[in-house]
Design goal:
single chain, about 80 residues, alpha+beta, three-stranded antiparallel sheet, 2 helices, about 40% helix, about 20% strand, elongated
């Protein structure tokens, strides 16, 4: 596999993981949201992946989830099965 093919696999992930504050919760107001809907913003294409006490912890989880998805895309392009922790 070439470096260009690896980069294409890495950038093929169009899902987003972002952090938002939800003041409806007394604690753990920072949510990590997985959005796979592209330009469409809809409850049907978003899922809360976790809630945290701080934005720093939420940012870390969002980054980790995005990196895992991109790594899985590269493994898939290499023909290797992906393992979930």
């Amino acid at each position: 596999m070439t470096p260009t093919e690896i980069a294409k696999a890495w950038h093929s992930v169009k899902d987003r993981w972002f952090v938002r504050r939800n003041k409806m919760h007394d604690s753990r107001q920072w949510e990590v949201v997985h959005d796979w809907g592209g330009d469409l913003v809809s409850d049907e294409t978003m899922k809360v992946m976790g809630r945290h006490d701080s934005s720093i912890l939420a940012d870390r989880q969002a980054k980790r989830l995005e990196d895992e998805a991109r790594g899985a895309a590269v493994l898939h392009a290499l023909g290797q099965p992906t393992q979930h922790p």
